[in-house]
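USER:
Class, as today's exercise, take the chain set out below, and explain how the chain folds.
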Amino acid sequence: MHLPRPTRWRAFASASYRPFQAIAVGQAFTASYASDALFVPLLLRLGAPPALVVVVGATPVGGAALQAFAPQILRRLKGNLRWLTLGLAVAEVRGLVLAAIVAGLAAGAVSQLLGIALISVTVAIGQTAGVLSGSNITLWTAVVLPDAERRLVGPRMGALTMALSTALLLPAGSALDAGTRAVGLWAYVAFYIVGGMASTLTPLAVARLPHPGRVLVARETAGGTEMPPAFRRFTHASVIASFGQGLIPALSLYALSVLGMSAGFAVALSGVAAAGALAGSLVAGSFLLGGSSSRVLRASFLLRALAGVCCAAAIPANPLAPAFLLVGSALFNGAGNAGALATNERLYRLAPARARVHCQSRFVGATGAAAGAGALVCATALALAPPAAWAAYTALYAGSAISRTIAMFRTEVSASWSSPSPPPTEVSIPLNGSD
């Protein structure tokens, strides 16, 4: 059993990993103050229909399918993964753009309808670029770091992001409620400015990462013979689960539009989600150093199915509905983060070293497309069933639980909880300069 160890955190805290630490901090501010936690209550306050909010929030997930074109893009850029990732990382400062839009709304210079459109476009494009940036940073890490160091750095970056997000979001809920009562939309402007300014850490830190050199991608052979059968089966199970991910309406959307909770509760819900994600990252990140990624992935599907059941039970007639949402949020994000770490680890264990770019881009593209398809089903269901909206939400949460259950049974697992080829538990720290 690999439990969290202070020695590994001390290793990650070394000066060699400063750029990775700064990326994690910048992403925490983006995730907290320039993403779903704020734009969902903001759009609903402005009068946007729930179906539009679902589409806007799901666009980045479906947009991840664009990662499938990474090999072709890299060939056109002559293997310059650095410039591709740097360009995408600029989207992390979108909080400043959102601040300007909301300031225009608060000052009366921008109409409500135009404001909804501008916010929706900024979130959809900015978060899509952010998702692609995260995928490319993960790929960059896999290129520049030995596997033992990659297993050290990746989970701890995620844990640091989630820990800071939890600290940022939990008090932000009451602050947002108090701020909107006092100054209206200007409260959102303040959060967006703070998030946008702190998020500049991400592109600045990406520029300081060790250079990956030219990541040259060979053209695929006819029939795609470089994709191992086990990798294909892993992808198929993940596609089923990703469709279920797309079916999930934002829990904050349900809390606001059906249960009648406040914007502060919606933000606090995101804080609980971040806390759950932190717990999942800490536990899974340490275990995966020598544990079975396939078994962690299967367990994460089971917990995400239970999360869907919890949310389906949060009907308006249930006096404990808010508590069920909080539990579901923690489970969705805790198991989701653990599952994401297990997915990345399994991907790189199954993918041949020479085909990592092809495998990663194809996998992210397929799962992103599946999640986008699920999101379209979600948005359509909410658009067509407004009179019984809670029933539509319940059906979608139940559908997500069913999808994750199917994926759980379709996931092939190793014979034991130990990795078939456990990596070294200790790593050497020094990273060479920029090249």
